[in-house]
Design brief:
Layout lengths: L6 E6 L5 H8 L5 E7 L3 H10 L4 E3 L1 H6 L5 E4 L6 H10 L3 E4 L7 H14 L3 E3 L7 H12 L5 E9 L19 H18 L2 E9 L4 E3 L9 E3 L5 E8 L4 E7 L6 E9 L3 E3 L11 E3 L10 E3 L11 H12 L7 H20 L3 E2 L22
């Protein structure tokens, strides 16, 4: 029998993205945020007070809290695996910001530890649970564009050094445009086409040193350790193909571009870094005619970051699989590492992992309804 009280949540990492998570996690009736932890306990206290969370402290305080069932790991990518493993060792489920780790071995060890302990790992992005991408997935499943054949995605702008007050980690190993933004686009494509089987890619680094351009540290220089422009080709197990651009080097901003072409039409998706947005379809027109667009009716209730935590909490209580799983996160990481290896080697690289079946969100699911 399910316990008749919300699932307890603790949060480690009180940086920029914690606002988006805490805004939603504190509004979902099925969750109770019990504690916020950070290396900077003053920052943890400020976020806790801002969102009405009664306790704050260090990461250790979160792991030791008796009311915490799920820990939300919002640390920098380089320590995702380390922190998530500590959560598992503390006997709690973990939801991690993307990517799950920066090395395959660390991610695999985390998933093996969790399985052995009977605990769950969930991994961002959870944007694929939002009504925007779910509406697109349902359209493809219904056959609205026939058989899906190919995909094109573009994410390009001048880079997060323009706006982030501490952007160094976004240009370090485990980040860059591929590992920072790639999870949104690749996860969406895997949900649409299934697992990636092989990749080929090229990449470049426009500048080896960048400058912080906003905040109190504006003018500070830092080293760039990753390619800042990557062009990738993806082959999926079902025969579909995709081409993707990930760039922090473009003066022209073009983000959220995702097109899926099928035998009967082309589907335009909303930005995979968002939870909602319009889904449109166009079909073959006479030569010289402008596209004629059909809007697909949206399905689902919108929210934001933290939706995956809620899905995992409800799945734990219901004894069913959660959607944004550790296996999906591992396959996306594996795919991105293969892309990175292809950039370095100049060779096509096979992807060894698979994502498994990814279920749709029930149409009547309401994140703001109390069910536990």
């Amino acid at each position: 029998m399910a316990a008749e009280h919300p699932v307890g949540v603790g949060l480690i990492g009180a940086g920029n993205i914690s606002d988006q998570y805490l805004t939603n996690l504190t509004r979902f009736p099925d969750l109770h945020v019990a504690v916020v932890g950070d290396l900077d306990t003053g920052r943890a206290e400020a976020q806790a007070r801002k969102y009405g969370v009664e306790q704050w402290g260090t990461a250790g305080d979160v792991l030791a809290h008796p009311d915490v069932d799920i820990v939300v790991n919002l640390t920098v990518p380089a320590v995702h695996a380390e922190v998530s493993s500590a959560v598992i060792d503390a006997g709690k489920h973990v939801w991690s910001e993307k990517p799950i780790a920066v090395e395959r071995a660390d991610a695999r060890d985390l998933l093996d530890r969790a399985a052995a302990a009977g605990l769950r790992v969930g991994v961002a992005p959870d944007t694929v649970l939002g009504p925007g991408l779910q509406t697109a997935l349902r359209a493809v499943t219904r056959g609205d564009i026939g058989t899906p054949l190919s995909a094109q995605t573009v994410m390009q702008y001048a880079g997060p050094d323009l706006w982030h007050p501490d952007p160094e980690f976004l240009f370090a190993k485990g980040a860059g445009p591929l590992f920072d933004m790639g999870p949104y686009y690749i996860t969406a494509l895997v949900c649409l086409f299934g697992s990636v089987s092989r990749v080929a890619a090229v990449g470049s680094t426009a500048r080896t040193v960048r400058t912080v351009r906003s905040g109190q540290r504006a003018g500070a220089e830092f080293a760039v350790a990753v390619p800042t422009h990557v062009s990738a080709l993806l082959q999926f197990d079902d025969g579909g193909v995709g081409q993707s651009v990930f760039s922090f080097d473009s003066p022209l901003t073009r983000t959220g571009f995702v097109e899926i072409t099928g035998t009967e039409g082309t589907l335009v998706l909303p930005d995979p870094n968002t939870f909602a947005g319009e889904v449109r379809i166009t079909r073959i027109q006479e030569r010289g005619q402008d596209p004629v667009w059909e809007t697909v009716a949206p399905v689902g209730v919108g929210s934001g970051r933290g939706l995956g935590v809620l899905d995992m909490a409800r799945a734990i209580r219901g004894g069913v699989p959660h959607i944004a799983s550790g296996d999906l996160g591992y396959h996306v990481l594996d795919t991105m590492i293969c892309v990175d290896e292809s950039v370095t080697s100049g060779e096509t690289v096979r992807v060894a992992s698979t994502a498994g079946e990814i279920p749709l969100v029930p149409e009547d699911r309401d994140p703001f309804g109390a069910t536990l």
